[in-house]
Amino acid sequence: MRFDLTSLQIFLCVAEEKSLTRASKRAHLALSAISKRIAELEHRVGSPLFTRYPRGVELTPAGQSMLAHTRQVFEALYRLEDELGDYSDGIKGQVQLHATTSALAQFLPAEIKTFTTQFPGVRLDIEERVGAAIVRALSDGRADVGVFASHTPAPDLETFAYRSDEICLAVSVNHPLSDRETVRFPEVLRHELIASHAESALYAQITQEAEKLGMTPTIKIRVSSFDCMCQLVAGELGIALLPRHVIRIYANSIGITDVPLDEPWAIRNLRIGVRDFRQLSPTARAFVEHLRAS
To answer: Which InterPro entries does the record match to this protein (predicted)?
Structure first.
């Protein structure tokens, strides 16, 4: 089944105007030409796309499906036009990157810097998201590349090993646990915690591990950023579980320290995810290869 773009544009026009007459004026075509194009589309589809009324038309269920797919076609064409325009301006394309807070706080900034230094014309659009939202964005085509924790279900994606991080306990330098070599998770749960937002992969992991022990974390304060968590720990308002690298960024300046968490799950693996590596733009493929080689 093949469709030409002109017929699809006319169909879209009729669907939006809900009138053959108004669509003909908008498209600057004769009403008979509009009617003929719609009839040809309906014949090709094998089903009516519109229900005709004296004062206009309404989409049938088949027409509603056709409208959704037609909009996707034109959105893809607009993106293509935009990206090719970037090439003509000397820019080498665009990458939509969605990543977890942990990945953005630790590893990605340096690797994005080296990539954009090597390819200065590339534009990266970066969004911070939780793992499940990243997987959905990749599946829906709203993101080209994602970085998320390996325990996030992603059955329909291609994934590649990326980096590992270690979850440690962040405490103020004056806290009783600050001089410990390691700490077990049950002991951590006896203290009031500063936690990230409820949808974060890190918080989900903490609650899951607590449930296995038949315990519930006592959340004193919940904030949305690692920076705020560290500042609150430094203010001795609680303790927090955070990636070691993040804690050490703040350790010297605000008086916090990291205590290793003596649990096998404290070592987390991050993965790179894409919907279909072969279907990525050359720019997005180059970015994935850059991350994999880092």
So the answer is: HTH-type_LysR_regulators, LysR_HTH_N, LysR_subst-bd, WH-like_DNA-bd_sf, WH_DNA-bd_sf
